[in-house]
Structure formats: structure tokens, C-alpha cells
């Protein structure tokens, strides 16, 4: 018998009938000869609703208490799924991250997994039980409950697959796999049969909401095959694995966008060595991740510069507080924020060996009058910051420019 880790997202568990449907799917997989560990997200929009509730009672809820609150969503899911499986005549047992000793660091709301004690899981499997695990959560060495960041149940599943030596990590969602673009925006978007870890990592970090980027980092590091598939069909989804020749032949694998970022600009900074290091050291000390960075000559003249960068919107308030302090310390002219931006990106392993991708992307945006505010590139991706209201049109026009709606050749 093989060991499989399955993860089910909140949309797959949004009502009692869907929960029973997941229970039947899990049992079917077990009856095919597999041992099962199942990771669950919170039901439907539970986490979002809990966060809204937190902000109704507190303008700035303490991150420790946020973790205490939002970790409860997955506990509801795991218990209900275990009940549904038991009701169908198959023994199941549910566990929280604390019970399983999914040990993390102490960074609330975006903790990193340090270790997993697999004894309870292995004992339950030996006893013939299907193990249900609350995703998204862990516990630090001081027994404080922590959570793993947005989409953290994906990370729980991949980390468990590594710790248990699973054959595959199956990620079940409400779509049939990973597409060349969001099919809700681009009707002719195509499902990708295979993707490299590297391309999927870029797509995930740039806005594709199918998988958490940190889960891909772990999968890549330990070579864990991931199968992204639909919870409502038995069709093959998208396999994410090591790079193969067929992937290298594809110029662009997908177009994605992200509206969850904001631009911060610290104005009129003295243009001397060490300024940038000091600014971004202060941000790093607050455990804030910076994405794109650009530095321009200030409008006030020589010897001064404006430094702009992007952060996720949830970190914007904290970032602005830090930047105002930094501005006073270095004699800058203050900091301003812009939360009306979006980032549109193209990703493809084949970009390494093909030229002209940037030009085609910029031409596509120019053809519909979309202005580019910031640009960032790597070997396999190009990202542009644009106005938020232009994001969906940008995705459609770029998707069309690279002819991603055409049938995708099967990999050899």
C-alpha cells in the first residue's frame, strides 16, 4: 500500500453535502489500497469571516490572538470530515497541529515549520484509521498556537508528505488544475498538464491562488510530486515536478495578476551609501517581505532620491509606520502609500532561451493604453506594476499576445 497525503481546500468543504462528498472520495482512495493522511482548510469563507470579526472588535488585533482565533476554522473542518468518514463505516481520527506537534517558529500569522512529530499519525495508520489533520496551524516551542500564512494548509500537506515519505501530495480544489490564466477572466485559458517546481513557484508567488508559494519551495527542495486536481471530478489535473524538456520548449506557461500589493515610496532620501541598506534592514526586522524595488532621482534635485517598493497590503500599515520613523531619522520628506496598484506577470521556463518576451509583453499593454509603473524580471518571469483597474484587461491582452489559448502540446 502507498501513502498519499491529500489536501482539501475550503471550497471543497463549504457545506455538509460537499463534506460527505470528500469523505466518499477519501474512502474510495483507501479502498484502492492507499493509506491516507488528509489535510483540511477551514470551511468556505470561515477564515475571512473570522478576520472581519476580529477587526470589528479591534482596530489592530494582536497577532497572537489572531492566530488563536483563525486556527479554529480548520478544527471545525477536521472534526466534521472525520465524523462523515466514520458515518460511512471507516474509522477516522482528527488532530490539530498542536496535538501532532507541528513545531514552528514564533512568528504569528506567518510561521515557518521547523519539525513534525509523526508518531501519532503513524500509530493511527497502523491502527487502520484515516488521519485527518487541521491545516494552516502549528505550535511553537512555548506551546503558543501559530498559523502558517494565507494558503498555509498547502504547506501543512507538503510538509507532512515529506515527513511521512508519501508517494504524492494531492491538492484538491475547485478547479481542474493550473491554467495559463485565471479562467474566470480569460475564457480560453488552458489547463497545463505539467509544470516545473520553478515555474509553479513563480506563478504562486505572483498571484495564482491555486497553491501557496512556500509549499512549492518545500516540494522543490525535497522533490515531492504534487498533483493539483478537482475535488468534483476524477480527471487528471496538473502535475508539478522537476523540469522536463517539454517545459523548456514552452515560451510562456502562464499569465497571472495580483491585486494584493501596495506601493510605498519614501521621498527625497539623501543619496549616499548605506541609505537603502538601512531602510530595508528596518523592514526586514519587522518581518515584512519586500517584492519590487525601484530608485529614482528625486524631483527636488541632485543628491536626493525617491525609493519605491511593494509589500502585501496586510503589511502596509506596519510598513508606513516604519517608513515615517525612517524618514524622520534620515531627513527625508516623508513616505506615501498607493494601494491602487496591481502586478501582472508572465512566467515560463522557456524564457531562458528565447528573447523578445519583454518587448511582446510591453507591446501588448501599450496596445490598450496601459501604463507601466514598475518592472521586475528574473530568468523565467517578467512582472509589471500597473493600475489596479487595468489588471484584468492586461491579463486578457497578454494571454492573447502570447497565443496561450491554443491547444497545448502533450509533453514527451
How would you explain this protein's 3D organization?
- The chain is of the alpha/beta class and 412 residues long.
- It has a domain at 2-174: Carbamate kinase (3-Layer(aba) Sandwich).
- It contains 14 helices and 20 strands.
- It has helices at residues 16-31, 46-57, 63-70, 72-87, 97-100, 119-126, 152-164, 197-205, 213-222, 245-248, 275-285, 316-330, 357-367, 391-401; strands at residues 2-8, 34-40, 92-95, 102-104, 113-116, 130-134, 137-139, 145-147, 168-173, 194-196, 226-230, 238-241, 254-258, 261-270, 293-297, 304-312, 335-338, 341-347, 374-378, 381-387.
- Strands 3-6-2-1-9-11-12-10 form an eight-stranded mixed beta sheet, sandwiched between helices.
- A hairpin with a 7-residue loop joins strand 11 and strand 12 (238-241).
- Helix 7 (152-164) packs parallel to helix 9 (213-222) and helix 11 (275-285) runs antiparallel to helix 12 (316-330).
- The two termini are 29 Å apart.
Layout of strands and helices, then pairs:
Layout: E1 2-8, H1 16-31, E2 34-40, H2 46-57, H3 63-70, H4 72-87, E3 92-95, H5 97-100, E4 102-104, E5 113-116, H6 119-126, E6 130-134, E7 137-139, E8 145-147, H7 152-164, E9 168-173, E10 194-196, H8 197-205, H9 213-222, E11 226-230, E12 238-241, H10 245-248, E13 254-258, E14 261-270, H11 275-285, E15 293-297, E16 304-312, H12 316-330, E17 335-338, E18 341-347, H13 357-367, E19 374-378, E20 381-387, H14 391-401
Parallel strand pairs: 1-2, 1-9, 2-6, 3-6, 9-11, 10-12
Antiparallel strand pairs: 4-5, 7-8, 11-12, 13-18, 14-16, 14-17, 15-16, 18-20, 19-20
